Amino acid sequence: MSIKCKAALTNGDGTLMIDEIEIHEPEADEVVVRIKAAGICHTDYDSLKWGKPMVIGHEGAGIVVKCGAAVTGIAAGDAVVLNWATPCGHCFQCLEGNQNICENNSPVTAGGKVYSGGHAHAAGTTWKGVPIERSFNLGTFSEYTLVKSSAIVKNYSRDMSFQAASIIGCGVMTGYGSVVNAAKVKPGTSVVVLGTGGVGLSVIQGARIAGAAKIIAIDINEKRLSMAVNFGATHTITASKEDLGLLRASIAVKALTNGRGADYAFECTAVPELGAAPLAMIRNGGTAVQVSGIEQAITVDMTLFEWDKTYINPLYGKCRPEIDFPKLIGLYDCGQLLLEEMITKTYDLENLEAAFQDMLQGKNAKGVIILG
User: May I ask the CATH architecture of the domain 3-167+343-370?
Assistant: First the structure.
């Protein structure tokens, strides 16, 4: 039997609407999930203008309602976290250990092409009787969703709220994984974080958990810098919009790092003009990490690369969901990973427009939609 429910939709031209969709019976490898909470990300706002109708939202957590005949290890009633980079397990990249850039299933790298939100399995979700795509194959701004079983990871935590669980599957994983999986930050080192929104705070937490001795947070927002200290920043630098490329801020960084620059620097601003900024923050031989997914063409002063500096651009923190999500849940359970503290405000689905505006104005570290 199908399920009719409320969801946030777009027709692709920037319009946001709340309307009824229908979730149909799961295929053999699919699962119906009742979404309890969904994290809000800048990508969700961007998806309003991707030129096609879709159910939006790509961070979420909920409860399994029904499983397809071939699904194993998951049952109705299980609490789960959703994951948008679903690995196939047998393509070249998956066999190389790069499950985050699966050649068959990834909604942003499938077939070597970049997709705006997914090549989704849309047939099981309909709007006004017509199949509609789900953003990143998930569509979490909906009371129910239908996903591949590979898109969910069971949540064994007894204490984690659905709100906290909902933000693991993109921003937290991206930030933490960029530190631990991609840069492999070593204990006792120095780290700079450019931008202290939800992803930046997750980078700070990853650096703290990895044992970094000095974590320097940079932002133009004083409120966010205060939050950064609560999550592990040891130093803060208030930046200026007039500081092109954050070159003045880089002088302050070098003053805090024996004149050399930091061992690692992470760009989390999503501002194209700051794509090369982490290179100005690191020492010779250091590592710069572009976390926020800047895709625009930028001009880079190649002297910033001198000498022996490394610049990497990992996707989704090199996430391996079945390995990394349980680690994040375990870190939460032992008190090392703060999640509820990142959630500045929660909203009803009908207030999604207000949630987007708060996000765009920098009011929230992380906003969450409550759906059940």
Answer: Alpha-Beta Complex (3.90)
